[in-house]
Amino acid sequence: MPEVAADDVDKSRTPGKGRPTPKRREAQGRRTGPVPPPPRTQREALKRARSTKSTQTKEERRAASADRRAKMLAGDEKYLLPRDRGPVKAYIRDLVDARRNLMGLFMPLAIIVFVALLTPLVVVQQYATLVTTFMLLAMVLEGIVLGRIVTKKVRAKFPTEPIRGLSIGWYSFIRASQLRKLRVPKPRVSPGDTIK
């Protein structure tokens, strides 16, 4: 059996790096590189906030969060979610908020249906289902009409903006289907106001 040379053994294994592996704390402390871009969504911001240790106390974080929420509800452009930013979206919100919509009854209707289905009377359940079906159909039709009206007005007011009718209609539908008190940002106009 031929003998294996020492050079062949050294080539077959990976050489060591010549220093011990750094501890995680040391590696994270030395980490350098470009600054990451600002978070695009609230979920991404929360993930980043949890991953990095903050020197703020719990009360300070709560106060900062309440301040951000108050500014977002007030409609401060800097604190709005990306889907709500810009003059086009503000105009759409104003158009929707100035109307009285049947779609705003969606949440209360869902609660009424849930309660009706819990009742042991079959007649109540049948009528609740029938009324709910008609209400949902009326809400869908109203949503389609609202989307077309809002898209037409937005295209007239912002002729240079690239406007996709489906996304404008969907944004209007979602805004109108929320209870007025729960809309974010809060409505700037009252129902019945004329929006130019």
Overview features:
single chain, mainly alpha, 196 residues
Describe this structure in words.
The protein has 196 residues and is mainly α. Among the domains are: 56-84; 86-182. The chain contains eight helices and no strands. The longest helix is centred in the last third of the chain and has 36 residues, at 122-157. The protein is elongated, with a radius of gyration of 29 Å.
List the helices and strands and how they pair.
Elements: H1 6-12, H2 24-30, H3 42-51, H4 58-74, H5 87-97, H6 106-118, H7 122-157, H8 165-177
Overview in brief:
The protein is mainly alpha-helical and 196 residues long. The protein has helices spanning 6-12, 24-30, 42-51, 58-74, 87-97, 106-118, 122-157, 165-177. The longest helix is centred in the C-terminal third of the chain and has 36 residues, at 122-157.
Q: Radius of gyration in whole Å, from Cα?
A: 29 Å
Query: Would you tell me the overall average pLDDT?
Result: 85
Q: Could you give a short account of the major beta sheet?
A: none
Structural class: mainly alpha
Low-pLDDT ranges: none
